[in-house]
TrEMBL record:
It is found in: Cytoplasm. Substrate recognition component of a SCF (SKP1-CUL1-F-box protein) E3 ubiquitin-protein ligase complex which mediates the ubiquitination and subsequent proteasomal degradation of target proteins. Acts as a positive regulator of the BMP signaling pathway. Required for dorsal/ventral pattern formation. The gene is fbxl15. Part of the SCF (SKP1-CUL1-F-box) E3 ubiquitin-protein ligase complex SCF(FBXL15). Pathway: Protein modification; protein ubiquitination. SUPFAM superfamilies: F-box domain, RNI-like. The keyword rRNA-binding does not apply. The keyword Cytoplasm applies. Keywords: Cytoplasm, Leucine-rich repeat, Repeat, Ubl conjugation pathway. This is F-box/LRR-repeat protein 15. It comes from Gymnodraco acuticeps. One of its GO terms (cellular component) is SCF ubiquitin ligase complex. Residues 12-49 form the F-box domain. Belongs to the FBXL15 family. GO terms for biological process: SCF-dependent proteasomal ubiquitin-dependent protein catabolic process.
Amino acid sequence: MDEEAQMQTCHILDLPWEDVLVPHILCFLSLQHLVSLQRVSRQFHSLIQVYLANCRTFDLSSIGPSVPKEAFCSMLKDNKVLHSLCLSSCSEWVTDKELLPVIGQNQHLQRVDMSSCVGLTRHSLVAVSLSCMHLQHLGLAHCEWVDSLSLRSLVDHCGGLQSINITACRQLKDDAICYMAKKCLKLRSLSLAVNANVTDESVEEVAKNCRGLEQLDLTGCLRVRNQSIRTLAEYCPKLQSLKVNHCHNVTESSLDPLRKRNVVIDVEPPLQRALVLLQDVLGFAPFINLQI
């Protein structure tokens, strides 16, 4: 009887950790739940450390502000197999001191998001470029510390980049963006938004070199004009999405050919905008025969 009762008593920690728990159970838990589970007991703490040492994706976007920097360092101290790292909500505490060791020991990273991490410096981007040769996706939105030299270092070593977001990286000018376009021929998604330094020169260089471009964000690029949009239409047949809101020098004459190719554009045609304004004023949409 005692033997039968003993056989029926099986705890989750009795299951093989690396063969069962790590690949088939813990992978379905959020990072927040894993951190909570780690506090249950010493055994669970050890189990979660085994999981964290072998996880391929580490995303702090949901709990970043509440994670102490010491906890971040502890969680990833044994991991050397990361493929994806997201720090987009860690701006309050992450610095080069915490990030550089993680980057240095994870040379298989393919996706890194450092958006809005204002406490980092160009040294982190240089470290990414030297360590992560297989990098494909990079988020640097609102990282005003990104400069021309660090971007050049990145594209010199990571020519396989498929997407990069450099929204509001205001130190970057045409020369750096043109250099990137010539090095990263596989780019499919690019954001140059909110940068008054970007001109037609950058957009044309991107269009002529990145023929597989699918998404381009030029929101707020005040110096971009129709000329470069026409070049974009000519050289990028795979373009699916274009954002030109607040680009006051881009008009319908250059956007219409793209609309006819079903490219999604974030600015309505002039007639559509006029109808919306009229509806706001009158309180209803008047019938207009568009066939005339």
